[in-house]
Design goal:
The chain is of the alpha+beta class. The protein is 63% helix and 13% strand.
Length: 350
């Protein structure tokens, strides 16, 4: 066996429950010896405390391994308490007998043991109840840890699912736009391909992280807006303004795009002669605020069919992501007016 194998075995042993329990009882034994040191001869104290610890171990593990699983964990409290008392009633005379044998050469000690039989019983009962408290508490903490781990796994699974829905939704729209321009043999197509490649790089690599640099997310937004500017008619007004600076803040990726998609889709509709989309971002060390306002037709023409229910998948998903990632650290207001639609989103970083 080489040194590396021995090291691994040593680490495994140190991490086992058996080693922890053994270490606890050894330390507990020497602690009791130190308390009684000087009162009686050393050999006497060592043997006396060894007897005490041995019976404490018997009570604790009988309680933890047998009584608690069989009675207490099955919510049979009365039966559990009766069985614990019965265990202590059985152990106490045996412990007293060991004391009497140990103190057989001293009549005064033997008489004191018999007189203190009630205190010996109560001491053993206290050890049993203490082990119950320890077991119940440790089981509760273990259950809470498993619950948190399960919730975290479920949360990550849900977030991955929601984000996987956002990505194809956006690129489906963008590729449709690119296809339309290539049919027209537009000179804008190469620039769209370049910006689209930058966005795909961001989504393939950076967006897989839990958080990304706010600056990267803003660059992604800028590329998206520039793509829209390239393909839209000059009759439409598109404004984008950033107030403040990104100075190392972190944010969950792809939080803004669904709102932008929605604003461009409805704000620059062919039914609107002078459509507009106004976007403003306010940045500071603690938060980011996104304000988007877009035009919309006053009434929906009767010959136009209502959009399919799946059309709002990106917007619904980002609302869900906000609740999961920033449950108490975001504010989303949506104002639906006759001629405009406004979104105000504020995300607190800390």
């Amino acid at each position: 066996m080489n040194w590396i194998d021995f090291k691994n075995i040593k680490e495994d042993v140190l991490q086992t429950k058996g080693f922890f329990h053994f270490s606890f009882w050894v330390m507990f034994y020497f602690f009791m010896v130190l308390i009684e040191r000087g009162t009686y001869p050393t050999w006497f104290v060592l043997v006396d405390k060894l007897v005490d610890v041995s019976f404490f171990i018997l009570i604790v593990y009988t309680n933890v391994l047998f009584l608690i699983p069989r009675y207490l964990q099955k919510e049979n409290l009365i039966a559990y308490l009766l069985m614990l008392i019965m265990l202590v009633l059985i152990v106490t005379p045996i412990l007293m007998l060991c004391y009497l044998i140990l103190y057989s050469s001293n009549d005064a000690f033997s008489t004191q043991i018999i007189d203190n039989r009630t205190s010996i019983f109560l001491r053993c009962l206290l050890v049993g109840l203490t082990s119950t408290g320890w077991k119940v508490t440790s089981d509760w903490y273990q259950l809470q840890g498993e619950k948190r781990e399960l919730e975290s796994q479920n949360l990550q699974s849900e977030l991955k699912f929601l984000k996987s829905q956002i990505n194809p939704h956006f690129f489906f729209n963008t590729l449709n736009n690119l296809y339309a321009l290539t049919l027209k043999k537009s000179d804008l197509a190469p620039e769209i391909v370049l910006r689209l490649s930058e966005m795909m790089r961001y989504m393939l690599y950076d967006s897989n992280e839990k958080v990304v640099a706010l600056e990267s997310e803003i660059n992604y937004v800028i590329n998206y807006i520039e793509l829209e500017k390239l393909r839209q008619s000059s009759d439409f007004q598109i404004n984008f303004d950033v107030e403040g600076a990104a100075t190392g803040q972190k944010i969950a990726p792809l939080m803004f795009i669904p709102f932008l998609e929605n604003s461009f889709k409805h704000g620059l509709d062919a039914q609107i002669k002078r459509g507009f989309v106004n976007i403003k971002m306010k940045l500071n060390e603690a938060s980011v605020q996104l304000d988007i306002e877009n035009s919309k037709p006053p009434t929906l023409p009767t010959h136009i069919k209502k959009p399919k229910k799946s059309g709002g998948i990106g917007l619904e998903n980002v609302k869900r992501r906000l609740k999961l990632l920033y449950p108490d650290r975001h504010n989303l207001d949506i104002v639906d007016r006759p001629n405009s639609y406004k979104v105000l989103l504020n995300i607190q970083f800390t």
